[in-house]
Amino acid sequence: MRDVSVTDIAAAIERLFIEANFELPGAVIKGLERAAEEEASPTGRAVLQELLENARIARVERLPMCQDTGLAVVFVEVGQDVHLTGGSLAVAVAEGVRRAYKEGYLRNSCCDPFTRVNTGDNTPPIIHASLVAGEQIRIVAMPKGGGSENCSEVRMLTPSQGIGGVKAFVLDMVRRGGPNPCPPIIVGVGIGGNFERSALLSKEALMVPFGKRNTEPRVAALESDILREINGLGIGPGGYGGSVTALDVHVKMLPCHIASLPVAVNIQCHAHRIKEMTL
Amino acid sequence: MEIKRITTPLREADVLGLESGDKVFLSGYIYTARDAAHKRFVEALDAGQSLPFDVEGQVIYYCGPTPAAPGRVIGAAGPTTSSRMDSYAPRLLSLGVKGMIGKGKRSQDVKKAIGQFKAVYFGATGGAGALLSKTVVSYEVVAYADLGPEAVARLRVLDLPLFVVNDCFGNDLYEMGMSQYGAG
What we know:
The structure holds two protein chains of two kinds.
Chain A: E1 2-5, H1 6-22, H2 26-38, H3 42-61, E2 71-79, E3 82-85, H4 89-103, E4 126-132, E5 137-144, H5 146-149, E6 153-157, H6 162-177, E7 185-193, H7 195-207, H8 217-231, E8 246-256, E9 261-268, E10 275-278
Parallel strand pairs in A: 1-3, 2-4, 7-8
Antiparallel strand pairs in A: 2-5, 5-10, 6-9, 7-9
Helix pairs in contact in A: 1-4, 2-3, 6-8
Chain B: E1 3-7, H1 12-16, E2 23-32, H2 35-46, E3 59-61, H3 89-94, E4 99-102, H4 108-116, E5 120-123, H5 129-133, E6 136-143, E7 152-166, H6 173-181
Parallel strand pairs in B: 1-2, 2-3, 3-4, 4-5
Antiparallel strand pairs in B: 2-7, 5-7, 6-7
């Protein structure tokens, strides 16, 4: 049994959200650079150059890369041999988020659904906590923008729709989103589980390291197929037309009910902000 | 790529000289307004009140920036999704607004109003808030300060990089781009 103070968790959360908003992961920058070489449209190439310059300015000047600094999505994997001390995990995570958005001059983007009054400190965060083996705590911070989240959906397909139905659904979501989710996008697809598990799976799919394929060959093939078909849509960088609409597609799959084929599509913008650390 | 430089306020001649796909550097004063501010604009008009600034020839930027860190004019300042302002936009265009800056598709009603009132819809690159903030020379809240990031602010910009998405002739860069590069 190892003691971990929730104060350390709050400090980690604060740092992760600030860094995530200032520093685009190196793998995503490489993806944008490759896209800038491959993109067929001159306008698309110009947009990709803007995005690379934007990432550089954000990193060097410590400015958020996007004004939508997101709702604070937090995945916490707590080792079952950890004893948390000094208070509640949820309170500590919220405190870390509160401090990050204040100290980092990030935008508070959280409000009441109907009155639209801002909560003022970007809380409550969205926390997905799970128990894992061991005595460590892994924290993943993902500030998630609203524009791309608005282009996401869960759909309960029928089993007979199969793999073709899944592909058609993903393509339909990307087509409908068009320029709105800030392409080039990254697409997380959750297949199976049940209604809520598929949605969470699609978010977990976005946490898979950029460029990494699923270990199961048939799922990896599906990822590659969907990516190729998305890039045939012609939406392009910024939606102004082009050959690079998505940088990557990640699929996660679980068994489901014999009556169901749940599928969730979670769209992520090119500002794929994600930072993690292990305590 | 040729760059057209224009300055606000926009006159009809400026708008008539712009076509979908043009790269534009915009300079002068522009006004930020997004969801909550648009709702208040329309509530004010419905109550017979005037808008908080003279909209004739002006350009509205769908933007809610991050707070300015010490020593900065503004934080990150990129565009938000324009379609959420679609239900309000035709009314503002009818009152003299000449330009809108945002990202993403507009409704048929907005496109029709753009043609009818000789206006223009520009796209700024979504997710390039740090880059775009470098073109902002001044920032001053002019209305609805209580809305925080959604307050209406007057920005002075110098060479704000934009593309013309919807021109006043009925063209749409998003549709043009997809038909040129899509597999069909």
